[in-house]
Records
---
Amino acid sequence: MTTPIRTERHDNVLVIISDNPPVNALGQAVRAGLAAGIEEALSDDAVEAVVIRCDGRTFFAGADITEFGKAPQGPSLPEALDKLEASEKPVVAAIHGTALGGGCEVALACHYRVAVPSAKIGLPEVKLGLIPGAAGTQRLPRLVGAEAALPLVVTGDPISAKKAQAIGLVDAIVGEDSLEADAIAFAKSKIGQPVPRASEGTANQDGVKNPGIFDDFRQKNGRKMRGFEAPNAAIEAVKAAGELTYAEGVKKERELFAKLMGGTQSKAMRHYFFAERAANKIDDVPADTPLIPIRKVGVIGAGTMGGGIAMNFLSAGIPVTILEMKQEALDRGTGVMRKNYENTAKRGRMTMEQVDAAMGLLTPTLDYADLDDCDLVIEAVYENMDVKKEVFGTLDGVVKQGAILASNTSYLNIDEIAAATERPGYVLGLHFFSPANVMKLLEVVRGAKTRDDVLATSMKLAKKIGKVAAVSGVCPGFIGNRMLSKRQEQANQLIMEGANYWDVDDVLLEFGFPMGPFQMGDLAGIDIGWHRDPSKVTTVREALCAVGRFGQKAGKGFYDYDEARNRTPSDEVKTIIADFAAKEGHAQREISKDEIRERLLYPMINEGAKILDEKMAQRASDIDVVWINGYGWPIYTGGPMFWADAIGLDTVVAGLEKHGLPVSDYLRGKAQRGETFNG
Ligand code: 3H9
């Protein structure tokens, strides 16, 4: 049997090497190999120091997540790491790529850590609804202090090698191309010295001297932690590192870890981890499909959407030519882009040199001919089929053959747009979400004739610009907006029947969404798509516009807003809604929060089922990816389809029937057969 761990002798240093592609996850064979490697070093008097490193693209990226939920097979990671740390011979972790989760814990159990400048180190377990479970929450604070450990353990965001060195997590930064040799030299320099062990460190006393740091951290990060169980457990574990002995602290960590692992949130978040990766794969497009090189991108429209789309590529170092019809609009659009970058720089997340470099890759133009050499052109103009057809017809005439032509439409028929060109195989939808430079989701809309290489290239490109992509077939609203429309329909109906609009919003907030439909309307602007005639009022939204309640930007929409954008329900809006309900003859009744939640969410599940039945989504988990990344569906419930599986499809069907709402045959069939969406 081949083992993923091998050892090599370099003079008096034993190098333990892991080769477990793709990410050196710490599966059973790796753990056993690590333990055996340490035993080899300890039992050989000629070995005086040890280096642990990994082949391939990264240092250990953590425990093997595919083993979670299965019967554990020894040695456990904590056992292997205790053996490692106990060594009297110095052990050095040589880090490249990403040392994450259990990988970071391996490094913490080593006596020293050296890293290449490009390495990243982190404890992302909270993103899987967990906390570190191999003493990471106990060794890290003892090594770097509770204050420095908190953001790493609680947010799960990795830090650079440089930052890690600054907080004392990394002892030395070594040559990018000479990691092994430098790590061996470092290890030799430590021979004969007493080994420092993180478990024996005392830096954690900062949290004992100043216990306020935990509450401060909670307060500062409260909004991001809302609804999540793991971050609170992470804080508790780091706090325990200061209050308890190491052995007691480890026990506490283990209890918290086991509780989270058995809970629903971690199960949902682990589902999401694999869902995101599955969404990137297109079942009938071979993984080795040759890609179209994308060296230059064109964007049509320099409005909020076009500008945001362009920024994604500029930030990834890809030159963009951006086209507008009028100089004034072009200047305004590029000005907004620069300002957005400058704001990012002000927040310390970019340097001014990086701002200039990104903007330096932008070519503004008024002339379609300047798009001729682009490899991909994305249209982000007004949502009107005739306008889109005209744009695509023009593009077809100017842009070089073999280039991809994409529409950012959020609901129009891509096949009809493609038919306006002589190259429908090269046309697809790339639906970005607003603000396009921030939102993670990219819905990739596959037309009837879209070529495999065009799709494969788009998926790869999405990853390059930091997006999470999911493929949708051609249907009105695609996956996301098609399901959203069902929720919105019910939201509008509920307030006509007597539900308070703030209760409708609050139900979704309590479920874990960042905001409800009416808050969302206020944020986006109530006047989107308004005909601008105050005398023509046929909907509640038009009535709000008629009295200048355009949303947050006007200080009032469904809600009144104060300077700090706190919302209060408005008497004026209550009256407008009541008048509408009376005019349309809706009987008024008290509506419970349970009914509101069921009527908002169950019709979405039903629509999701139809989307699957029509094969508009490849798999249920793709729908989860769309809703988590595009619409703020709480990740700790796993997305709409996973959530429906968890509560039971029979519950969803019964709820829809109770409220007199349609049930699709597909959903009913699955429920009757006792099946789930995510199999
Ligand atoms: C943990 O460590 C708990 C401990 O504290 C306690 C122990 C007691 N396991 O993301 P990619 C697969 S919890 C199994 O596309 P990239 C992934 O599914 C863990 N599989 O690559 C994919 O498979 P496929 C804490 C894993 O270059 C393939 O590898 N660690 C694991 O874009 C490539 O992945 C984490 O949460 C894993 N741990 O990004 C880190 N990781 O090809 C999780 C990846 O079949 N991993 N796979 O679709 C990552 O963040 C990224 O994978 C990484 C590379 C940044 C490393």
---
Amino acid sequence: MFCYQCQETAGCSGCTMSGVCGKKPEVANLQDLLVYVTKGLSAVTTALRNDGKEVSENINHLVSVNLFTTITNANFDYYAISEKIRETIFVKEQLLGELSEDVKANLPEAALWTGTEDEFDAKAKTVGILSTENEDIRSLRELITYGLKGLAAYSKHANALIRDNEEVDAFLQKALADTLDDSLSVDDLVALTLEAGKYGVAGMALLDEANTAAYGNPEITQVNIGVRNNPGILISGHDLKDLEMLLEQTKGTGVDVYTHSEMLPAHYYPFFKKYDNFAGNYGNAWWKQKEEFASFNGPILMTTNCIVPPADSYKDRMFTTGACGYPGCKHIDSEYGQTKDFSEIIEMAKKCDAPTEIETGTITGGFAHEQVFALADTVVDAVKSGAIKKFVVMAGCDGRSKSRSYYSEFAQALPKDTVILTAGCAKYKYNKLDLGDIGGIPRVLDAGQCNDSYSLALIALKLKEVFELDDVNDLPIVYNISWYEQKAVIVLLALLYLGVKNIHLGPTLPAFLSPNVANVLVENFGIAGITTVEDDIKTLIG
Ligand code: FS2
Ligand code: SF4
């Protein structure tokens, strides 16, 4: 195996024996094959579109789910991945029949390869990351592929709410196919990387529209972090449609529902407030789940990443749905638009003890675009009066490396006239610290999940308009972003597309950036790593 797609990759260079995330070599290899056949399918769908033919939503969904399946900590299930490869080859074979022999002759090998299950392992070993020899081409192909994985994840959530964007899907598949094209130069791939950022904005806008149309605009909300006496179900991940189905099915059963990690922002949506059994948020970011899932006592539903390989003490209480999976954990699913049957989880919950309390109090969030726009006058006045000197975007991911304590320390060391804008599970490094407020505006404004970084971009663009500036970089906003997995890659590419410069990215720069590709990002966009809290405060705040 060779995998270097996430921030925790072994030795900051690549996992080769087994994943730091817990991914076994045979699963890592099979994920490479799933990416390969999905790229092959995408070359076929791109050829069909070029030929004026339509590609069905089902196929677009298959491409997105396949990519999502290979995101860090999403799916560890060899047989589920193998099944997706089989399905993808089957669909691709059917579509190939719609293309002329001339067009087929120009397709890449991935589009034409077919094999049975007994051939998957051997083939997988030949199609991994290292099969691209030139390190800059490899770096750009992987940077693009990881961005597309993030885009696919956001599309998949929108698809669950019956929202599709054919333009986004067509780009995603064309760009996947382009990563197989040996005729593309480094410059071509750099241009494709930036184009991916443009579609990253479109993908996040699609999901934002889907979420807010279904559940209303997030509003300032205090979320309870203690527990009640009823048995509970803990729901983690990002899929709000899954939460809606779970809340509907648990109504009146005596079972409470708690959010975990990236599901916390669901509390900010008006729609979910009508459920009396929507009890609060339990725990912290994904990487603490071993202790927190054990003390929760009830069943856990993982709707997406990030899964930590479960301990035996709660493995039989952990369920998966959607793109994620773990061997030995029951997977519950349905077709798009159909209801998932969570009755088994609810029945299990009834027999479990109530959660053990691990903390008490509340946390405040809900500062997505409409809520911040509603406060625009107060915010603008605070900037004009000098009460707020700077906004610091600290969106992104949390993770288990000790070096990430930097982000808690950085948040605490910021001058009192700065406001943190956050989104994603990165927030858990500082959302329980008492950082106070500035004239009633909390110093940590949480917009929501990682995809809600879109809100932060809209807020920046709104401030640019209000202050009549030509360049978003002239705003008093600085960026100190933490990353872990591939959704952060599409968020980063989206920010670059919007013209944001001088983003600091940590705790380490991606291992998949070759020195030359890293230089392109440094020279054109001023991307930098992090150093010490003291020095970075000086650099960013002055
Ligand atoms: Fe956090 Fe994991 Fe949100 Fe990532 S819970 S690192 O999936 O996308 O953020
Ligand atoms: Fe290693 Fe990250 Fe890949 Fe897991 S996802 S195998 S930790 S690089």
